[in-house]
Amino acid sequence: MLALARVLRRRGPRITLETHGLATAALERVIDAIDVVAMDWKLASDVRRLSDPRRGPVADFHDDHERFLRVAQRAPEVVVKVVVTPASADAEIDEMCARIAAADPKTPLVVQPVTPFGQAREAPGAERLLALVARIARVLPGVRLIPQTHKLLGAL
């Protein structure tokens, strides 16, 4: 993939990496061929690792995502995306914002309400989403709110 990215980049297309934001070592190997890193920031209040117990406390993703973001910033452009559910915890969102801001407060953050599908039964309401965007904007002024377009188009 690295060789392909390098060849394409020399021909003009911008190379975008859409990623879960956890494979830092893999990113290190390809970052010099990437123009845009679009990474997800997982919230433990919404996503469990396979290694987490079925019940009880779970490990958060903040340290892993922060390490990934620090490498991603070597690309000309970085965008962070977070999917929020009704269970998304304010404290976890605040921690995510603080870590992104510490890396670069100009980093755009895209907030996407979960699309009810599969195990996701409901999306956060409009009032909750507007409150989240206002809360995030105090730390990250480049916050955007968009739907999970790929799910709306049926590309799951």
Description of the structure:
This protein is α/β, with parallel strands linked by helices and 156 residues long. The chain has a single domain (16-152), classed as Aldolase class I (TIM Barrel, Alpha-Beta Barrel), CATH 3.20.20. Helix content is 37%, strand content 16%. The chain has helices at residues 2-11, 24-30, 62-72, 90-103, 126-137, 149-152, and strands at residues 16-19, 36-40, 77-84, 109-113, 143-145. The chain has a five-stranded parallel beta sheet with strand order 1-2-3-4-5, covered by helices on one side. Helix 5 links the parallel strand 4 (109-113) and strand 5. The protein is globular and about 45 Å long. The two termini are 23 Å apart.
